[in-house]
């Protein structure tokens, strides 16, 4: 690869990261149709790297390129939401089973303490800072479950799905009343793992999926 090609790849990577940051901050939202020129303006990158960034985003399911219309950000339809969370659940179940079989006490105990702290604070009152903390703690458990798979291919799938879910979540306001139930669902997963109960851990992951979809107003297997 010559220097010019290398610079082009670097710009494309930087452009994709800038685009991804826009999505994560909600500056470009799920279901929104945007033009390439808008993305150039928002990211500050020229045409070629922005086009490459959009192609990359399409390959990971973040967007669809609509010829002569623009770039459609992943839409929060019931099927899309269900598919993304179901995929996470499938990987999380196996991760929970592995951790329970290993009796992975040290990382799980630390996570348990953090979840309990979020829950205790939520009982006293919910602030925007607590909501952000709860979201971060929520993802800590999911990353721990996925990481236990020790599978680079699964890690790639999980990372792309994390990005899709993060963008989808930007389409809904954080609900304060969801924090305590979500922490309880996570604590049941953690407690089953700590007790070495593999089936209970997997069952708790599935129950968390059902709770998450209810928050979205979606059933597990709607037609």
From TrEMBL:
Does the entry feature the keyword Transcription, yes or no? Answer: yes
Among InterPro entries, the record links this protein to:
GntR_C, TF_FadR/GntR_C, Tscrpt_reg_HTH_GntR, WH-like_DNA-bd_sf, WH_DNA-bd_sf
Q: GO: which molecular function terms?
A: DNA binding; DNA-binding transcription factor activity
Q: Which domain of life is it from?
A: Bacteria
Q: Which UniProt keywords apply?
A: DNA-binding, Transcription, Transcription regulation
- The HTH gntR-type domain sits at 9-76
Answer yes or no on keyword Transferase.
no
Identify one Pfam family in the record: GntR
This protein's name: GntR family transcriptional regulator
Q: What is the lineage of its organism?
A: Bacteria, Pseudomonadati, Pseudomonadota, Betaproteobacteria, Burkholderiales
């Amino acid at each position: 690869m010559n220097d010019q090609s290398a610079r082009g790849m670097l710009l494309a990577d930087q452009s994709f990261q800038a685009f991804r940051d826009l999505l994560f901050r909600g500056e470009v939202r799920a279901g929104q149709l945007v033009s390439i020129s808008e993305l150039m303006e928002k990211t500050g990158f020229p045409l070629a790297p922005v086009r490459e960034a959009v192609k990359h985003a399409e390959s990971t399911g973040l967007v669809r390129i609509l010829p002569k219309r623009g770039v459609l950000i992943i839409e929060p339809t019931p099927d899309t939401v269900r598919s993304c969370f179901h995929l996470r659940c499938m990987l999380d179940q196996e991760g929970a089973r592995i951790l329970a079989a290993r009796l992975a006490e040290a990382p799980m105990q630390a996570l348990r303490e953090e979840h309990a702290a979020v829950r205790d604070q939520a009982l006293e009152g919910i602030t925007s800072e607590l909501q952000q903390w709860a979201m971060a703690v929520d993802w800590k458990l999911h990353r721990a479950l996925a990481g236990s798979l020790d599978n680079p291919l699964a890690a790639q799938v999980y990372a792309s799905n994390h990005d899709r879910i993060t963008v989808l979540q930007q389409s809904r306001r954080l609900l304060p009343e969801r924090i305590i139930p979500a922490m309880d669902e996570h604590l049941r997963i953690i407690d089953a793992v700590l007790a070495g109960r593999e089936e209970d851990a997997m069952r708790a992951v599935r129950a968390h999926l059902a709770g998450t979809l209810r928050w979205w107003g979606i059933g597990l297997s709607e037609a």
